[in-house]
Specification:
This protein is of the alpha+beta class and 117 residues long. The protein has a single domain, classed as Immunoglobulins (Immunoglobulin-like). The strands form two sheets. It has a four-stranded antiparallel beta sheet with strand order 4-3-6-7, with no helix packed on it. A three-stranded antiparallel beta sheet has the order 1-2-5, with no helix packed on it. A hairpin with an 8-residue loop joins strand 6 and strand 7. It is elongated.
Amino acid sequence: MNRTVFSFAALAALLAACAICVVPALAAKDTKTTVSAKYKEADADDPYGMTTFEGKVGPSKCAKGRSVSIKDVGKAKTNSKGKFEIALSGPADPGKYKVKVKAKGSCLAGKATVTVK
């Protein structure tokens, strides 16, 4: 009888330990990605100035090493602070440009729109 009670107690302790490990894993949510971007035209007085699309991806736990793309413009990866820059060879045509960030791990995909006038 003591052996049965001991086995039951051991089984109950094992199940409790598993529940402690599994419940937080099930409760983990995907994190929404935020994207901010802008168009920065080169200074006309600077012959070496660059025209760029630049921005930032957040939150900080989702920022590093994210793939950022702008259709028909280019691609980049974010630095450790979530910042990115895509250099252009000349000014961008007027219009709306969609900035997309790919999903990575528990961080969801994100997007933003930049309007160039």
